[in-house]
TrEMBL record, chain A:
Pfam families: Fer2, Fer2_2. The lineage of its organism: Bacteria, Pseudomonadati, Bacteroidota, Chitinophagia, Chitinophagales. Keywords: 2Fe-2S, Iron, Iron-sulfur, Metal-binding, Oxidoreductase. GO terms for molecular function: 2 iron, 2 sulfur cluster binding; metal ion binding; oxidoreductase activity. This is (2Fe-2S)-binding protein. The keyword Iron-sulfur applies. Residues 1-75 form the 2Fe-2S ferredoxin-type domain.
Length: 146, 717
């Protein structure tokens, strides 16, 4: 099957029930998207599918052919970080940072729809992402400032 | 045996007559490259087998294996002037990679950017017991400061000698020594170029006082932050080696179950799948994790289960199986006597459930065997401990095992052990290929270890003027951290009774201090109400510790403790002291009686951990502790029945999320006159009792179990 990730077409020879997360991490060696729960409950694996943040661990790769997939690796442009990435860096909005890829992807998904979200809108949009180090207040600030 | 001297190889030791010990410096520099290095002392470095070995790779780590309590590190200035700091400590998100670099930069007068922190590598870094117990900042920090200052002193001397000038006429700045009169400069790397110099750490070297710091004490951003926000950092679970396969391990259906038989045939899906059975260990490897999981699922295993305790009867079980440690002392009698004589008496018991760490990166390891040597990358707080576990499991000398720890996706006390490392190494040995094992979330819940559950019983009394007159405190199973009361509590009898835990239990951020201080601070609040005293005033009346008093005052002031409460709102306060740092926390809750809805509106915490090294990262640690603690306070609990964990997933085990987060204010008392303490644990201890006390204030309901409101608040409870 063929998928488009970060504006590049890839041919994959994997079983249909392979998750998008495994396809990215194992078969394309794009390891920025993380495994955290395997049931779409933590958000560490989120990627943008046609601009919307989706949990890749419960998305069969076969279902996203002919769609645009953007992972954390695809946000940087010409060596310049996406404003959300830069804001996370500026705000030190992480500790172990294992959740950061999924957080940033979710935030980019939100900002695409709603460039100036309120604090409450950020909280609602990010509810599916867990930061186990619990620096949530800094993440909220980073997203608002980005 | 004495090696002939070569030009350019000098040591201070030789000059001071310690020449015998300098003979093995060559091996040291074989690994480091030339330049100048500072180590703990010659006896640590050169009297040891790692560098005496003539064959095989010498291990720098072995060099400092003086005893298991040594705090060893070394700093090396390379010929190009860059600085490498070697420490066995590891980075799990607490940002010590940054804060340790800051203290070195400060004392060595170099930029943080010129420092490479080499951490948690059993080949390259000195032995270290592990990264836990808030020990890095108070022990490794000062050691690195002294090492850096010792280096700077010697570099200044060498430059002064080069210019044939007095020591006082040079100073160090930005990685260079400056001759103040002429303005001439020499880079650190230039001074030591072509030389191989080892100097001992000068224990009496002058350190820069905290109030003169320019790099330490400032909010330096996470040093490798960019690699994390761009998804480039390779956690162990992201690592790949050529020819690597993925491993999965067969697990028992419950605790205490033993394997009877296993039919492995159906698991052999293809030639690429290998099934490994070594005694009761059964695992599979495959070219991708999905195939490995499918193969594993096809193993038909039969198990023999034994009855196990369940959550419903856990506290009775823990008490029945506890070892009594009251024997042989008379403090119990004195406490009972004072209690009996008091007019105001209180007996309370508290139940604390088992909870899970849930590090977002589960246990992971990548192992490879080459010529009888084992190399493992794994996320652990104790790389040297894992090296020992591997040595024992494979009857291998430690010198043949290298364990490395890339910055890892969190731990919180939950990654002291090397399960995944052992599994990956066992599979890799069997299949003759590199093997990566990454636990699933379910495995992490079921087969890692948990924060202990516990039962706490307290009997306390107070005189009508609000003075505590007796304090009897028993903790069953959860632990003795933070068990001593900081209050002047009259006749005290305080005991921890270890028990027989039915679930695997171990360290957790703050250890049992969370449980003990929850009970302690709940009782203090109830006593205050019994004698109609303000909870803050009551605490201060019974408290001498100046630093604890200070954080109580600071939190109360920022919170507005004395201000009027809105109808239906409750205020709670609690404080605690462990591991040389002090926390006080105030909470405001709002209770809607008709809807039985409780909301945590705001939290104000004041914290004192001595001198602050990085204010932003410190705030992140305090914030992380308090908000992670919110989970254990309100709703986190492991449910189990007959040896099975019933909620082993993030959809069934609730952790704090964005909409659980109250407004949070953190006041840090930066005590530059007091050495820095570690800050990753203590701030967790006061949030649960502060919430509990606020709920009692708002509703009159005294909740004496953690979590407090897993199903929401019911007024008839």
């Amino acid at each position: 099957m063929k998928i488009n990730v970060n504006s590049t077409d890839y041919n994959l020879d994997v079983p249909d029930n392979t998750s998008l997360l495994d396809a990215l991490r194992v078969h394309l060696n794009l390891t920025g998207s993380k495994y955290g729960c395997g049931e779409g409950a933590c958000g560490a694996c989120k990627v943008l599918i046609d601009g919307r943040a989706v949990a890749s661990c419960i998305t069969p790769v076969a279902s996203v052919q002919n769609k645009s997939i953007i992972t954390i690796e695809g946000l940087e442009k010409d060596g310049k970080l996406h404003p959300v990435q830069q804001a996370f860096l500026d705000e030190d909005a992480f500790q172990c940072a294992y959740c950061s890829s999924g957080m940033i992807i979710s935030a980019v998904g939100l900002k695409t729809k709603n460039p100036k979200p309120s604090r409450q809108q950020v909280i609602e949009a990010m509810q599916g992402n867990i930061c186990r180090c619990c620096v949530y207040p800094r993440i909220i600030n980073a997203i608002i400032k980005a | 045996m004495k090696e002939p001297k070569t030009a350019g190889e000098i040591t201070q030791g030789e000059q001071s007559g310690a020449g015998e010990r300098t003979i093995h410096r060559r091996n040291f520099f074989k690994l480091l490259g030339g330049g100048i290095a500072v180590v703990l002392s010659y006896s640590d470095l050169f009297a040891l087998p790692g560098l005496l070995r003539s064959e095989g790779e010498p291990s720098l780590a072995d060099a400092a294996r003086v005893d298991d309590n040594s705090i060893a590190a070394w700093i090396h200035i390379r010929e190009n002037g860059t600085v490498a700091v070697y420490t066995g400590k590891v980075e799990v998100g607490q940002n010590i990679r940054t804060s340790l670099a800051q203290v070195v930069a400060e004392e060595l007068a170099v930029s943080v950017g010129s420092i490479e922190m080499v951490m948690g590598d059993t080949l390259l870094t000195p032995y270290d017991r592990g990264t836990f117990g808030s020990r890095t900042t108070p022990t490794m920090g000062p050691q690195l400061r002294k090492a850096a200052a010792s280096l700077k002193e010697v570099l200044a001397d060498m430059a002064a000698a080069h210019w044939k000038t007095a020591k006082g006429s040079v100073q160090c700045k930005d990685g260079r020594v400056v001759h103040t009169e002429s303005g001439k400069t020499l880079g650190y790397g230039e001074i030591t170029k072509g030389k191989k110099i080892v100097i001992p750490l000068n224990d009496k070297v002058a350190l820069t006082p905290a109030d003169q710091w320019t790099v330490a004490g400032t909010p330096v951003p996470k040093v490798n932050g960019r690699s994390f926000v761009s998804g480039k950092h390779k956690y162990v679970s992201d690592m790949v080696l050529p020819g690597m396969v993925y491993g999965k391990i067969l697990r028992a259906p419950s605790y205490g179950a033993s394997l009877v038989s296993a039919d492995l045939e159906k698991a052999r899906l293809s030639a690429a799948v290998t099934v490994v059975k070594e005694n009761d260990f059964i695992g599979v490897t495959a070219p991708d994790p999905q195939t490995a999981a499918s193969a594993l699922a096809r193993i038909d295993a039969r198990w023999n289960s034994t009855p196990q305790p369940s959550r419903a009867d856990i506290f009775k079980y823990l008490k029945d199986n506890a070892r009594q440690t009251d024997a042989g002392n008379n403090t119990k009698e004195a406490a009972e006597k004072a209690f009996a004589a008091a007019t105001v008496q209180l007996r309370q018991h508290f139940e604390v459930q088992y909870i899970a760490h849930v590090p977002l990166e589960p246990r992971a390891a990548l192992a490879i065997w080459e010529n009888g040597r084992l190399t493992v990358w794994t996320g652990t707080q104790r790389p040297f401990g894992v090296q020992e576990e591997l040595a024992e499991a494979f009857s291998l000398s430690k010198e043949k095992i290298r364990v490395m720890m890339p910055d890892t996706g969190s731990a919180y006390g939950g990654k002291h052990s090397g399960e995944a490392a052992l599994e990956a190494a066992r599979l890799a040995r069997a299949v003759g290929k590199p093997v990566k094992v990454v636990w699933t979330r379910e495995e992490e819940f079921k087969w890692a270890y948990l924060r202990p559950g516990g039962l706490i019983e307290v009997a306390a009394s107070v005189s009508t003027d609000g003075t505590v007159t007796s304090w009897e405190f028993h903790n069953y199973n959860s632990g003795n951290a933070g068990i001593e009361t900081p209050y002047e509590a009259g006749a005290t009898h305080i005991r921890f009774h270890p028990s027989d835990t039915p679930l695997k239990q171990g360290s957790y951020r703050g250890l049992a201090a969370t449980a003990n201080i929850f009970a302690m601070e709940s009782v203090m609040d109830d006593l205050a109400r019994m004698v109609k005293k303000d909870p803050l005033e009551f605490r201060l009346h019974n408290l001498k510790d100046e630093r604890l008093r200070n954080v109580l005052h600071a939190a109360a002031e920022k919170f507005g403790w004395q201000k009027e409460k809105k109808a239906g709102h409750g205020h709670g306060i609690a404080c605690g002291f462990v591991k040389n740092s002090y926390i006080a926390t105030c909470v405001e809750v709002a209770y809607d009686k008709s809807a039985e809805q409780l909301k945590i509106l705001r939290v104000v915490a004041a914290y004192d951990c001595g001198t602050v090294i990085n204010p932003v990262h410190l705030e992140n640690q305090v914030m992380g502790c308090i908000l992670q603690g919110l989970g254990g306070a309100l709703f986190e609990e492991i449910d189990f029945m007959d040896g099975r964990i019933l909620n082993p997933s993030l959809s069934s085990y609730r952790v704090p999320r964005f909409d659980d987060i109250p407004l949070l204010d953190i006041v840090v008392l930066n005590r530059k006159d007091i050495p820095s303490a570690g800050a990753g644990e203590t701030p967790i201890v006061a949030i649960a009792p502060a919430i509990r006390n606020a709920i009692a204030d708002a509703t009159g309901i005294k909740l004496n179990a953690l979590p407090l409101i897993p199903q929401g608040l019911k007024t008839n409870s």
